[in-house]
Each structure stands twice: as C-alpha cells, then as structure tokens.
Input
Amino acid sequence: MTGQDAVNSAKAFNEGVNYDGIVLTKLDGDARGGAALSIRSVVGKPIKFISNGEKLSDLEIFYPERLASRILGKGDIVSLVEKAQETIDDVEAKKLEEKLRKNKFDFDDFLKQIKVIKKMGSLSSIIGMIPGIGQQVKNINIDDKAFVKVEAIINSMTSEERSAPKILNGSRRKRIAKGSGTSVQDINRLIKQFNEMQKMIGQLSKKGSLFNNMKFN
Output
C-alpha cells in the first residue's frame, strides 16, 4: 500500500467506523512516512502507534518529531537508545564489556549480539534510526534472513571453534558448511568479517574510545 493509499483507507474507514486513533504499520519507506504526517490533517484523528512490522512487540508510541527526523535522514537516536535499554541485559552487557576490553570477543558473543539485534526489530528499522545512515541505505534491500544463515553457521561450530576461531582450518570449514546448509565461501566470508570486527575492536580498545560512553547501573 502506498502512502496515498494509506490516507485514502484511513479516510474511508473513519467514515464507516468513526475510530479514535490510528496505528500505522510497515513504516519502512518515505512514502508511508509522508502519509503519517498527512493523515492527521485529512482524517482529523491522531496516530497513536507506528510500527515497522505487524507484531505487537513491533509497536512504538508515535512521536511526530521523531518520525520527521527519520524522514529527513537525521535518524532517531532517542528511539534507538530506548529499544536498546529495553532489550539489553545489564549483567550480559557488563560481561561483554569485559571481554571487549581484553579483546576476547568470540563467536558466542557474536551470536548473542545477533539475538539482541533481532529482538530490537528489523535491520531496516534499526538502521533508519542511526543519524546519517538511514538516507544512505534507504534504497538498499536489507534482508533480515541473512541473520538466519549466520546463526546456522555459528550453531554448526563446536564450542571450541566458537571460542577460538583461529583453529577453523579447511576441513573444519567444510564440515560447518555441510552442517549449516551453506557453502565454504559463506564460512570464509563470515570469518573474514569476524576477523575484521575483532581487529577494529582491538584498535578501539587500545585507544579507550570504545568504552568512553559505556555506563551501567
């Protein structure tokens, strides 16, 4: 449904039912975002909730200024922080910080962070909240199914392999590919990305910049 279709549907539904408020779902495009800003004036009814999905857990209280910021490509860092606070466990966060300080981030930690991100919502909705990033990737198809492949690969590793990725030689990679229903190329790609992430974490840890804004209760 396009943005204009959403306005027309809201208007027709209001004439037949006379509802009190609006819930706007699948808010993942500029057209639908524009519709949100015009529905109030066309229908005369407030938007109560918005969502990038259709599950109850995806619902967010509607804040006009935050949506306007997203549409303008300025992100919505307040909503992003709120989602993170609702999702991230303080105890687990402290454990992760300690491992990051020692540069011991492994595939077990990586898997935990994927699960945290999935709880926060779709990748497209999260990226859209990051200032300066949303506009750059708005026309790129971001597939959340990529997480499924990564999880399958990591779950096909032994506990030793997850904690010590350096032992992942050719034969181990073939076994993991077979067990996860992926290819050796997929395994190589994930390991390369993971190694680059570890390198970046190590550099930031040495500078101390990774933990400057980390605060726990």
Summary: The longest strand covers residues 47-50. Residues 3-62 form one domain. The two ends are 44 Å apart (CA to CA). The chain has two domains: 3-62, 82-207.
